Amino acid sequence: MIQKLSVPVSVTLVFDHRRRTAAPTQVVFDGREYRILKVGFHHTYRRGRTLFQVFSVAAETVYFRLVLNTDNLFWTLEEIHDGEAG
Amino acid sequence: MTVRLVKLGFNPKPPTVMHLDLNSCFASVEQQADPFLRGRPVAVAAYDSPGGCIIAPSVEAKQAGVKVGMRVRQGRSLCPELTVLPPDPNKYRAVHLALRKLLETYTDKVCPKSIDEFVLDLEGAPAWRRGMVQAAGEIKRRIREEIGEWLRVSVGIGPNRFLAKTAASLRKPDGLETIDESNFRQVYRRLAVTDLCGIKTGNLVRLNGQGIFTAEDFYLADEARLKAAFASVAGYYWYCRLRGWEIDEVVFGRRSYGNSYALPKSLTDPEELLPILLKLVVKMGARVRRAGWRARGVHVSLLYRDWSHWHRGQVQAETVFDDRDIYAAAVKILGACPYRKPVHTLAVSCFDLVKAGSAQMSLFGEAERKERLARAIDEINDRWGQYVITPALMLGTGENVPDRVAFGGVKELEEAVMAAV
Fold it and tell me: Is there a contact between B353 and B254 (Cβ–Cβ < 8 Å)?
């Protein structure tokens, strides 16, 4: 089931200077740690002048939509999908 | 005087035009973002409520019979495991911009036709010398590697835009087809007239009236017969198009700005429509001013739940650019509507555009004061976000008039490209 929400979340993001990539590698949500296995898509949007970085990522059994506010560097979890239809 | 019509043969030039169509665009992008949706029936709908309109089913949903335009409840009855998602325009615009950037590495003649369709002319480009089919294969591979491995495009190659688009529609998803001098007759033989882009019921009736029932009949018809069918220059355009000659490489300038909103629940009373009308005006007004325009005309359109339609445009005494003036004109137009029926879609637009600098100055500086105020409000909204400062009447409109991608439009995409630069 896909659930929309808006909650602060802890995210580890790694910048690899050799590959020139930056991507979340770990999410801590609801007391559990999830290792990110795949970045499905990355895009950005602006609200006013504030730039938001959106990472659509998948752990083993869960999908997360993680949004980084580049003004304050806070992460928000906006969507979670447990892999089930609906 | 009699004019002798010259019989035109099929364009013998090697095909250089490529049409790319991102298959099931919105749904595929959602499946790209969320790997758990891949291989499953997914539909992006304007609203995920049962009455919401499906705007993009995934390949898997299409295989289950789900089609564009169906209601969510109908889609779910055909495919109970259907996952329905609301649109995420920013995600789709990001894919559009990434595709555009990738295609511009092949030629500077890249023309977006909609959010999920591009036309490239590779004539003289290094990729063309390597071969069109090889270039198309390389583009498909690069899209999977550089933008998203779940994204598939159907590519059509032809001597003109029309045949390239027709070729792209021959095999979906992930097709790669060419129509040229060597095979166009075979292709026409297996297509219905309505398979051709631009021929729907109205034109079909016109063609049937001239004894044209198949795509091949259409091709074989001479110019005089096509002119008789369409009763306009359109007959000559079709005569050229079907023979691979380019007549669609036309760029139309911006002639209007507009915003519309399909109401989630029926509203009949104009009083209830006014806050939404104002929100549409505020959204449109900011776009008009950002692009440096003013407008002489304001237009309001109402599509009712019974699918009847009422609209009216009015040219103003002075050019308008301020939301208050556009809104006042729109309210006046709406007040002239004689019907009180449940409204499905409300739309407002500005037409007869003039560049802001060329508009006549007002005698007492009223327009200049309004302009400064509008500019100040726009700057605050640009800094802190859309609708930070709004007219009080707009309070309570909340989630109404959300961000949307215009169907088949490219003008709005130009604004997205400008914003990304």
Answer: yes
Identify the CATH number of the domain in which residue B207 sits.
1.10.150.20
Say if A67 falls within a structural domain. Answer: yes
Which domain covers residue B236, as residue numbers?
183-251
Neighbours of B131 (CB within 10 A): 13
The CATH number of whichever domain residue B104 belongs to comes to: 3.30.70.270
Nearest CA of chain B to the CA of A80: how many Å?
Answer: 10
Interchain contact A20–B (C-beta under 8 A) = no
Would you list the DSSP string of B274-296? HHHHHHHHHHHHHHHHHTTEEEE
Is the CB of residue B239 less than 8 Å from the CB of residue B247? Answer: no
Count residue pairs from A and B with Cβ separation < 8 A: 55
State whether B232 and B356 are in the same domain: no
In whole angstroms, give the CA distance from residue B12 to residue B15: 9
Q: Quote the tokens at residue B399.
A: 């989630």
- Whether the Cβ atoms of residue B67 and residue B29 lie closer than 8 Å to each other: no
Q: Which residues of chain B neighbour A63 with C-beta distances below 8 Å?
A: 34-36
pLDDT in tens, B224-279: 999 999 999 999 999 999 999 999 988 778 889 999 998 888 888 888 899 999 99
Which of B32, B34, B385 lies nearest to residue A48, judging by beta carbons? Answer: B385
Residue in chain A nearest B90 by alpha carbon: A45
Domain membership of residue A47 as a residue range: 2-81
Q: Return the bridge partners of A2, or none.
A: A81
The per-residue DSSP string of B113-159 comes to EETTEEEEE-TTSHHHHH-HHHHHHHHHHHIIIII-TT--EEEEEES
Summarize pLDDT for B371-417 with one digit per residue, the tens.
899 999 999 999 998 888 888 888 877 777 777 776 656 666 666 66
- A43, A63, A86: residue with CB nearest B94: A43
Closest alpha carbon to B279 in B415, B378, B387: B387
Q: Does B160 lie in the same domain as B56?
A: yes
Residues of B labelled catalytic? 117
Q: Are A56 and B34 within 8 A, CB to CB? A: yes
Domain count, chain B: 3
